[in-house]
Structure formats: structure tokens, C-alpha cells
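thought: fold this chain, then report.
action: predict
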Amino acid sequence: MSASPALPADGAALPHTASTAPFEPEAVEAMTPEQERVYLASQWRLMWWKFRKHRLAVISGVVILTIYFMVAICEFLAPLHYTTRNTDFIRAPRQEVHLFHEGSFVGPFVYPYVQRLNMETLKREYDVDRTRPQPIRFFCRGEAYEFWGLIPGDRHLFCAPEGGTLFLLGTDRLGRDMLSRILYGGRISLSIGLLGVAVSFMLGIIIGGIAGYYGGKVDLFVQRLIEIVQSLPHIPLWLALAAIMPPSWSPILVYFGITVILGLMDWTGLARAVRSKLLSLREEDYVVAAQLMGARPARIIGLHLVPGFMSHLIASATITIPKTILGETALSFLGLGLRPPITSWGVMLNEAQNINVVALYPWLLFPVVPVIVIILAFNFFGDGLRDAADPYR
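observation:
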């Protein structure tokens, strides 16, 4: 058994291990390169580093960018214009792409359809002629178009075979190519999501910023207004606002009208987030300094307060975009949103309301696939941005 250490005598100094060297204020512990990189990084760089670790969000971001890029160049990707009709192939099923014919490699090709009318059911039926493979043409000249309504062109990524047809997703009740209509309709549906969020983003920042900066009676009034708007049932209100739009309006006016309606209903959550942030930041020293220097409230809110939590606002806006897309799809599906000749995913799904049509022609439900994909991608992407908005957590 080891002996216990002897205690110092009364009045004797206690032993210690502190350094007796003179203190040098300039001497600091050197940081490692990794620590220095993190210490000197901006908030946006820290957000990017943390966002990259969220693999599902990164994949969703790639999916979103790919879809937006595709709809941006839909004139080049779509083999036909979304209004082009093929009256000989009404509600034709999709044509499958093959590579081999009778054991020989041919390349991407389709088999032609042979149409016949069933005299008992009066239904058009399509038989596949497997004796004549028709190669698909790529980077070909086809139907003329105007890119974004400005630049004329006729070059397409792929076209139908010479003297044949190419319906990769089938046709609708007027013989229009479903794939082409989905690509063109995506431009309308996705742009409405961005513009609708821009409207709600602007209203949320302005109204929430005024309430959070001034407080008092102004804040009380804004909070009661937000509660009134949130208490209204959104779908009936959407239907009422969409129904009052005159039927004589052009598709462009209806487009902007639907965008404003969707933006007016989604600003309340963002306004409350801005208000709560500004209530906590308006007493900071740099805000008081700006006030003493004579800065206007709009300048203080726009240049000093809002940029401090812009990352949170971007994450909130990203999560709001799918709600706007679903709102447009729901209104158009019910026949109160966009109307032909303009097309969107909701307009296309409007044709699939009848269960008998869906049972006989299930390819008319294909527009629901990009809706589901983009909604899930935005939700996962927004979750990743929300986590990355607080890089120090």
C-alpha cells in the first residue's frame, strides 16, 4: 500500500504547476490550417459546407436544376409543339424504344402503329407492326418554333422517324403528343411557383419588417391581419378569387392573375418569421448606431436587418415553392386556373378527371409524375437549406 503524500505545514505555500515565465500578450496558440479556414470562412461558405453533407438535399438540388433547365429549352427537347395535333392517332398509347430487331443491333428505334376501329366498342385500337423498325432521328430538323418567342429555329434533340410517328408518352384526346405538352406545361407550372413565391416573399418582408421594426400598435394590427388571413380556408378562397377573373381575359392575364392569387395567400408565415427576427435584432448596437446617424427605417430594415437572416428566408422560400406549384395544379385541375390554349401540368390533369378515361387511357396521368418529383425534390432541398442556414448548430 503506497504512502499518502505529505501535507504542507501550516503557512507553507501550496505546490503548483503554473509557469513562472513572464506573460507575453502577443504570444497566441497557433491555429491549424483547418481551424483557420473555418474561422475565416463567411456564413455563406459555412452554409455551403454544411449543405454538401446533406446528400439527399444535394441530389434534390441537382434534380431541380435539371428539370428547370429542361423546361427552359423545351422547344429544343420537345419533338413537337404542344398544340400540334395528329388526328390519325387520337389517344394512342406510348411507343416503346428498342435497340435490337430480330437479334441485330439497329440503334434506338420504334415500331409503327397500325390503327383500326373496333366496330363493337367503337374504340380506336393500335396494333404494333414489328416487321418495320423505324430509327429515331437525333439533332434533326423538324417542326419550326420560336425559342422563348424570340429566336426562330427548327432543330430538335430527337424527331420522329421519316414517315413515322414518335409518341414516347402517348397522345391525348386531340392527338397531341403528351411528352411535348409535359415539357411545355412544366415551363408554366414551375415559373408560376417562382413568381408566386416572389410575390409572397416581397409581401412577407415588407409587412413583417414593418411590424417587427416599429412594434406596438403597428405590430398588433399586423398580427391581427395575419390571423384573419390564416383563418380563411385557402382552397375555397382560391376558388372564389379564380372564379371572379373574367373569361374574356387572355391566357397571359390569367397567368399573372393566378400568380398574384397564389402569392397573396402564402405571405403570412414568412411575415411572422421576419417579424420575430426583427423584434430580436432592432435593439442591437449597430441598429441604434444607424438610427443615430439618421438612417431611414426602410434603409435599416433592407440593408442592416434583413441581410442578417437572409439564409433563413431563402430556406423558407424554397419550402414555399412546392405549395405554390400545387396550388396552380389544383386550380387548373378544377378548371378554375389556367385555361387552354395555354397548357400546364394542372391543365393536362384536368383531362384525367373521368375515371373511365383513366381506366382506358392510363398514360393521361403521366403529368402527375413530374409534379410528384418536383414537390419531393423541393421539400428535401428546403430541408437541407434549413439545416445549413444555421451552420454553427
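thought: worth noting. The chain has two domains: 81-176, 180-388.
final: C-alpha cells above.
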